[in-house]
Amino acid sequence: MLQVDDIHVYYGGIHALKGISLKVKERQIVTLIGANGAGKTTTLRSIVGLVTPKSGKITFNGKEIHRLKTHEIMRLGIGISPEGRRVFPNLTVLENLELGAYHRPPQEFKKDLEWVYSLFPRLAERQKQLAGTLSGGEQQMLALGRALMSRPQLVLLDEPSLGLAPLVVEEVFETIKAINEQGSTILLVEQNAMAALHVAHYGYVLETGRIVLHGTGEGLLKDERVRKAYLGE
Amino acid sequence: MTTKIFLQQLSNGISLGSLYGLVAIGYTMVYGILRLINFAHGDLLMVAAYTAIYGITLFSLPWYVSFPLAIIITGIIGILLDKCAYKPLRDAPRISLLISAIGASFLLENLALVIIGGVPKAFPRPEVFAKVIEIGGIRIQMLTIYTPIITLILLFGLLYIVFHTKVGKAMRAASVDFETTRLMGIDLDRIIAFTFLLGSSLAAAGGVMWAMKYPQVNPFMGVIPGLKAFIAAVLGGIGNIVGAVLGGFLLGLGEILLVAFMPEMAQYRDAFAFAILILVLLFRPTGIMGEPLVDKT
């Protein structure tokens, strides 16, 4: 479904991505793990067109997307819950969700909204509330729900567990699994390697702009290098 | 001062203030989305006034066709202004945009000077607006009555767009976060263009009414009302649409009443307005209704 082929990204003089290649197959959860500054977020930003790779290729459903503008890429069927959640604080919960559905046919809106509310009942209770007044966990639910409102084929999640209480983190990962079981393909960027590898079908380990390891979620969980470096053993 | 004169002046103040408010909306909208003081905004009053004149004199259009047409054309010129002067600088430091805005302002003024010339042109005043009526012994021109009414109608129309339509929601989203707005699949450039269309059209409506009020049109006619409207926008709280109109009313009333109560201060009218700007910036930079705006990157 998504294929990233040897992309190189530079920020000024810094070589941030040094040839990243990865594949996300339909109905999979694929995770990208690694330390801060390894290039996880930069990889996601390249996919959605917020940074342009200097070389390499990104294709989505066989179509080259690395030269398209961000809004064109998103309209092909990609939804994202960005790093730091980035809900619109000055808009209500419902308005945030409406923006998630910006380029969907209006007649589908009600059905999509009901679906998202069934995943996150809390959002339904708070729909008239300004998003800026929600708790961190609720904002993450909103960011996820907003991404799903476009009924994307591929959902990109950037650190959905960051800064949340352990109980809420668990809830978030349960939801990710549930969404996947309902048919969404997911690319999950996480620092919480343990939790990510537990839900993922396949994983890539990033280090300073390179992929150093990849394999099935289970395989990586058992890998000694992964255990040492990311799981604190 | 008699009650009569006071009421007379009050109506003048409200009328002037609503014009400031109408123009201030454009400043506040563009600032809200681009964090830019669009100094060329005031010159759109001049563009609208000339377009309206030529519609009537050159193409012999009736005023009720020529005026709305001038408003639409000025709205489109507002979009072009963004495309030429601001869009290429979207990722540049804020100061470059500001300089570009000042340059665009000089360009519009001097283009008008070269093409049309500096001799003021008389602005045609349709009978509907020029008519004077008497209410309770006060003589008021219909324009003085229509101006605040038109302003309020346009304000409510605008508020409807901003708060109850899809594109309005996208505008409010873009005012806090460009990147995430794009990530919603929204074409940000179209949202910004639409913002300029709305703001410029309102300025044009203000320009046409301003030209009817002071029917001498010249290439620099937009400078002072533009600056006054900018003050009104800051006074009301820049970024806040209702605040802009409120600031406009307060400034217009303040100016007129200052002159009414202290006729010897008449020459200091503009100084008074700028003193307000300085005081607001010193003591309450967020204005009356403004909230601290996030510094966008």
From TrEMBL, chain A:
Gene Ontology MF terms: ATP binding; ATP hydrolysis activity; branched-chain amino acid transmembrane transporter activity
Alphabetized PROSITE patterns for the sequence: ABC_TRANSPORTER_1, ABC_TRANSPORTER_2
GO BP term (any one): L-amino acid transport
Family membership noted in the UniProt record: Belongs to the ABC transporter superfamily.
Residues in ABC transporter domain copies: 2-233
This protein's name: ABC transporter ATP-binding protein
Keyword annotations of the record: Amino-acid transport, ATP-binding, Nucleotide-binding, Transport
Entries under CDD domains matching the protein: ABC_TM1139_LivF_branched (cd03224)
PANTHER family cross-referenced by the UniProt entry: HIGH-AFFINITY BRANCHED-CHAIN AMINO ACID TRANSPORT ATP-BINDING PROTEIN LIVF
Pfam families: ABC_tran
